[in-house]
Amino acid sequence: MSIRGLFITVEGGEGVGKSTNLAFLESFLRDNGVDVVCTREPGGTAIGEDIRRLLLQIRQEEVCAMTELLLIFAARAQHIMEAIEPALAAGRTVLCDRFTDATYAYQCGGRRVAWDNVKQLESLVQDKLRPDVTLLLDAPTVIGMSRARVRGELDRFEQEDLDFFDRVRSSYLQQAKNDSGRYRVIDASVSLDQVQQQLLTVANEVLSFWHQRSVGS
Ligand code: Z5A
Q1: CATH of the domain at 84
Q2: What atom of ligand 1 comes closest to residue 106's alpha carbon?
Q3: Ligand 1 centre and the CA of 116: distance in Å?
Q4: What residues pair up with 37 in beta bridges, in sequence order?
Q5: Which residues is 186 bridged to in the sheet?
Q6: Is-above-0.85 flag for pTM?
Q7: Which of 15, 24, 87, 209 is at a distance of 20 to 30 A from 199, taking alpha carbons?
Q8: How far is the CA of 213 from the centre of ligand 1 (A)?
Q9: In a domain, 209, yes or no
């Protein structure tokens, strides 16, 4: 039987550099012999990517916060069953661009959905599955927004205002404070080189965690 893989998630507000740094982390871990699977939420499966399109699409009608929440967890249920669990069970390290902490940040922090609603869905959909390590890329909201907005057309989330994204950021920082054993907070407001220097420290920590788990099994 193979050792269960590590589940690493990368979180942060829009435009803080998650995709860029996830790719950096992926190649560092691969170069060091770790078998990595990269994925994202919402998405990561064919059904999940269909749901993602539905979630990001700008619509005429207002999208009810509960509809949004249930769609996110519907995509997550498929993602866990089809991609995350099989990879972890096969001993592969899963590197995921956003997971349930994003739901606490965006739906509870941003949309003001009750925390307990997310907690209940988390237990229902994930059972005991939680990330082993979470990297929070943190930067003042205006920095992330300005980096993301050079891309042009805005999706349904990107159309939210500064207050919304400030609430998202505060929620992430609070989560990191409440679960400091799992979280590593990276200052993402500095140059990419400086961000990646900080990431290397965490990546080396992940490597030694991985080696310990391999030896201990
Ligand atoms: N959502 C939700 O509401 N609830 C949930 O549970 C989940 C998601 C899972 C889509 O997610 C939306 O889903 C998201 C929340 C919601 N909406 N928002 N906002 P997403 O992760 O796909 O969307 P995103 O946050 O908008 O990602 P992004 O805009 O692609 O940003 P990013 O991946 O963090 O950044 P990036 O693409 O790596 O970098 C952006 C640009 O900045 C790029 O040109 C880089 O070269 C540049 N960059 C990166 N780092 C630096 C530094 N350090 N200096 C200078 N320039 C930099």
Answers
A1: 3.40.50.300
A2: 3
A3: 26
A4: 94
A5: 137
A6: yes
A7: 87
A8: 31
A9: yes
